[in-house]
């Protein structure tokens, strides 16, 4: 009788240990959080809400620049006039790769968009690139 009672107690303790192990493993998996050096969130000041995309001097007049990682293309159709559009082609979703001769060009099937308003200049795309909001101030182009 005594041995049987001990067996029940042991099982109960094991169950408790299992529960604790479950608990411990859920908040003990901190390996992925242990590298604080990998967050460059403080790289740019947060004035104006957006992050800096480029300096105005980075964008050629009559041309533009593609920011692949942000999926944004910024153009300067006329001196001092900056525009920003999505860099995702409206045809089938490739990223545009070139800004040349007044157009933003997609390498996948040859669509070309105007640097002025992203209107389709050559298909197969049928819709313009969506506009992106930017603010330009003090030589800095920021996402809005
Ligand atoms: Fe750009 Fe087809 S995805 S032209």
Properties at a glance:
binds FE2/S2 (inorganic) cluster; alpha+beta; 10 strands; 1 helix; Rieske Iron-sulfur Protein; single chain; globular; three-stranded antiparallel β-sheet; four-stranded antiparallel β-sheet; 144 residues
Q: So what's the CATH class of the domain at 52-143?
A: Mainly Beta
Number of separate helices: 1
Strand content: 25-35%
Strand line-up across the major sheet: 5-6-7-8
CATH homologous superfamily annotation of the domain at 52-143: Rieske [2Fe-2S] iron-sulphur domain
Q: The biggest beta sheet, please? A: 4 strands, antiparallel
Shape-level CATH architecture of the domain at 52-143:
3-layer Sandwich
What percentage of residues falls in helices of 4 or more residues? Answer: 10-25%
Pattern of helices and strands? HEEEEEEEEEE
Helix/strand/pairing category: alpha+beta
Oligomer status: single chain
How confident overall, as mean pLDDT?
79
Bound molecules: FE2/S2 (inorganic) cluster
Q: What is the radius of gyration computed over CA atoms, rounded to a whole number of angstroms?
A: 28 Å
* CATH-defined topology of the domain at 52-143: Rieske Iron-sulfur Protein
Distance between the termini: 76 Å
Shape type: globular
């Amino acid at each position: 009788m005594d041995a049987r009672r001990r067996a029940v107690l042991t099982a109960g303790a094991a169950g408790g240990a299992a529960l604790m192990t479950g608990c411990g493993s859920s908040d003990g998996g901190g390996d992925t959080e242990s590298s604080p050096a990998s967050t460059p969130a403080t790289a740019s000041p947060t004035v104006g809400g957006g992050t800096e995309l480029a300096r105005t001097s980075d964008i050629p007049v009559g041309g533009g620049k593609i920011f692949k990682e942000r999926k944004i293309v910024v153009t300067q159709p006329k001196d001092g006039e900056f525009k920003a559009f999505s860099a995702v082609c409206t045809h089938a979703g490739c990223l545009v790769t070139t800004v040349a001769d007044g157009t933003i060009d997609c390498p996948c099937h040859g669509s070309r968009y105007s640097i002025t308003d992203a209107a389709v200049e050559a298909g197969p795309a049928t819709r313009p690139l969506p506009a992106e909001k930017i603010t330009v101030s003090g030589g800095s182009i920021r996402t809005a």
